[in-house]
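Researcher: Let's walk through a ligand-bound prediction step by step. First, I give you the protein sequence. Second, the SMILES string for nicotinamide-adenine-dinucleotide. Third, you return the three-dimensional complex as structure tokens. Ready?
Model: Ready.
Researcher: Here are steps one and two:
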Amino acid sequence: MHQSYHIICGENKYTLRSGQTASSNRQQIHPSITSTMSRFSLQGRTALVTGGARGCGLAFARGLAEAGANVAIFDRIPPEEGFLSIEKEYGVRTAYYEVDVSSPESLATGFGAFQTDFNNALDICVPCAGINRHQTFLEFNYADHQELLGVNVLGLFHTAQLAARQMIANGTKHGSIVLVASMASHVAVRSQLCSAYCGSKGAVRAMCPAIAKELAEYGIRVNSISPGYVRTEMTAAFPHLIEEWKSAAMNGRIAEPEDIMGACVFLASDASSYMTGQDVIVDGGVTKW
Ligand SMILES: NC(=O)c1ccc[n+]([C@@H]2O[C@H](COP(=O)([O-])OP(=O)(O)OC[C@H]3O[C@@H](n4cnc5c(N)ncnc54)[C@H](O)[C@@H]3O)[C@@H](O)[C@H]2O)c1
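Model: Step three, the predicted complex:
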């Protein structure tokens, strides 16, 4: 049975889950584990997550907050209860800004308000806002394609750009940008009609090393995450495909947003300090068999 227990390291407090030990006695934790875990701490850092009102973005916001970060979100819609309860649960500061990431004006206004409210602090940015359209390649029309690229590619790129400028200006020593790509940038999604979406996520993955290279001189790392099938509003439109998605994964299930949260916290934290320009696939093995 899985137990959870806490490690206190300096001012940092961590929750570990282990199937091996039922002990919550911190004396029994080896010092090397404590020092490793301290590298996952985001205590005192400030994060911005776009698309954080629900789904994967909300899970990322919650994971970053649990690790100690203050978290702001940009979204077109008001956040779910899971965001509103973060402050009370984790004792960090949160804020929601109504922003359409596909609009340069809205993004600039959002960043302006965020900078004022958080005294220009920013260490972590997770551009996660994204949309999909279920249409055949032969019928996909220009307007829908433009809208999709406006959010998934241009919105993500310019969020990362404004975040990087803010990180350079505030001189953070812990700058980390985690772009949200997709398994759909690695393979065609067998059950869905999403050629434009695959292309948009391919763009995210392709821009990642190039941005990483340019931001390395400022000590800002840039990586991407490619989730597989995750149970969110985006995939809720395809209930008839759930069984097929389960059988496509080596582990026989689709992911909950919390299943990909850990990869985001890892990439945001000093635990991944030697990683930049990389993509981390969290897909239950779908792309590997
Ligand atoms: N669900 C999956 O299986 C899956 C798999 C791989 C990648 N992803 C990616 O993860 C990210 C989150 O997807 P999700 O599954 O949580 O979907 P979701 O629809 O539940 O959440 C997306 C969020 O982005 C917000 N958003 C959309 N357009 C926006 C805009 N223009 N400006 C600001 N906010 C906007 C939405 O309001 C919503 O809160 C997306 O980039 C998606 O492509 C999802």
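Researcher: And what stands out?
Model: The pocket of nicotinamide-adenine-dinucleotide is lined by residues 50-51, 53-57, 74-77, 99-102, 128-131, 151, 155, 180, 182-183, 227, 229-230, 232-235 (CB under 6 Å). DSSP finds ten helices and nine strands in the chain.
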